[in-house]
Design goal:
Length: 413
């Protein structure tokens, strides 16, 4: 196996941070209040609205360019007031539809998912009801055709945990299309459909497993294609670049697995911010091709792996000069951030420092073309863009405007 040297290197590909923040906004009602935390966010399909989930449970909509708050979603039939815990609902995750820019899904602790048309934020469009087992849903997603919605549940009792599916072609029935109950044995923290294939689906659980499915198959046994073991509770998982999937654990270990037919279940990269985590695992055979990275513990939290199909637009000056790599967004408890580029072809990750306006741990991030959005326990929503693009734009704006009219010194006669 390939083991990374103890020293990581700062990027020499750019003379400044690859991203700079261009806007920021607060989800809090006033600067003096610190009782509202941003924990999840999603951007719509046209890239003009960002939704932010907070604790206590609110969903706030922002203009994606200016980060000006547009509205807050509410419900006429459900209580969002957390002071009355017996009747109020708790929302754990949110997700915009893939096609419709105005449809937003939210998972709740009341055995249903909520669906909004954000053009009418004061009333949810309808509910997607769970089964009679009364599950609390922790995660939600929809496929790239906006036809299928899936939600992962919290473990109930010793064995009752499920992934529920709804067909949006008949949403008014509000009944389940079906559910998977055999693949996981603990809370299902993250679910996601592949953006390139509407039938490919992935789930991650605190049981340490990441499961890959083809939901076009008629039974769960047939649908389950691969099970990947992350050796720790999953915090994030998903589909990544170069025909891979990834998992990030609650203890900040990460794995990148190949999904190609020739390399099924092969670990291409794994790593952590604490070398003792991987040292405790089973010794890898000497002929293994995987790379192990021990990332700097100064940025000890791995927020997520940046996976947008157009990630080159976000880091153009960096990724053009590197081999295939996977960008990990990292932070510390004071909000300091960097991007670690990890590769299966080189043992030494490239560390790209960011000048962060955040002051606490970043909880979620999402990319859209040449923009990155992050939200944090400090209640801040921040927009990032490539520094080269921003500098060029500013320079263009500062260019003096010269008249195209030529001087005419001749007499008019």
């Amino acid at each position: 196996m390939k083991i990374k040297p103890t020293n990581t290197r700062q990027s020499t590909l750019t003379s400044s941070a690859p991203l700079i923040y261009t806007n920021k906004s607060s989800v809090r009602s006033s600067l003096e209040r610190n009782d509202c935390y941003a924990i999840d966010l999603t951007i719509n399909s046209t890239g003009n609205q960002v939704a932010v989930l907070t604790v206590p449970s609110t969903i706030q909509l922002f203009d994606a360019t200016t980060l000006k708050q547009l509205s807050s979603l509410s419900s006429t039939s459900n209580n969002f007031d957390n002071t009355d815990s017996s009747s109020s609902i708790t929302i754990s995750s949110i997700q915009f539809a893939y096609v419709s820019p105005n449809t937003l899904f939210a998972s709740t602790n009341k055995n249903f998912a909520l669906v909004w048309d954000t053009r009418t934020p004061q009333q949810e469009t309808f509910q997607l009801n769970g089964c009679s087992d009364e599950h609390k849903f922790l995660s939600i997603t929809c496929n790239n055709e906006d036809l299928l919605v899936a939600a992962g549940s919290e473990l109930k009792g010793e064995e009752n945990v499920a992934i529920s599916f709804w067909d949006l072609r008949s949403p008014m029935n509000k009944q389940l299309l079906g559910y998977y109950t055999e693949s996981h044995s603990d809370d299902i923290i993250h679910v996601e459909f592949c953006r390139m294939n509407s039938k490919k689906f992935i789930s991650g659980s605190t049981d340490g497993l990441v499961c890959l499915y083809d939901v076009g198959k008629s039974t769960e046994d047939d649908a389950l294609e691969q099970v990947y073991n992350a050796n720790g509770p999953i915090a994030k998982c998903g589909f990544a670049q170069y025909n891979t999937v990834y998992g990030i654990t609650a203890s900040n270990a990460f794995y990148v697995w190949s999904t190609s037919d020739e390399e099924q279940q092969q670990v291409l990269i794994q790593g952590d911010t604490d070398s003792e985590i991987l040292a405790e695992q089973i010794e890898t055979p000497s002929n293994s091709s995987k790379v192990i990275h021990h990332l700097p513990s100064t940025h000890s939290t791995i927020v997520d792996l940046l996976t947008d199909n157009k990630i080159n637009n976000l880091l153009p000056s960096v990724l053009q000069e590197t081999d295939s790599s996977w960008p990990l967004l990292m932070c510390d408890h004071m909000g300091k951030m960097n991007i670690a580029l990890v590769s299966s072809n080189q043992c030494e990750p490239i560390i790209l420092p960011l000048h962060s306006p955040h002051s606490e741990t970043i909880r979620a991030a999402v990319t859209y073309q040449s923009s990155l959005y992050s939200c944090s326990d400090d209640g801040q929503l921040v927009r990032w863009q490539p520094s080269s693009t921003t500098i060029n734009t500013e320079n263009d704006q500062k260019q003096p405007i010269t008249s195209k009219k030529k001087s005419n010194h001749r007499k008019p006669y």
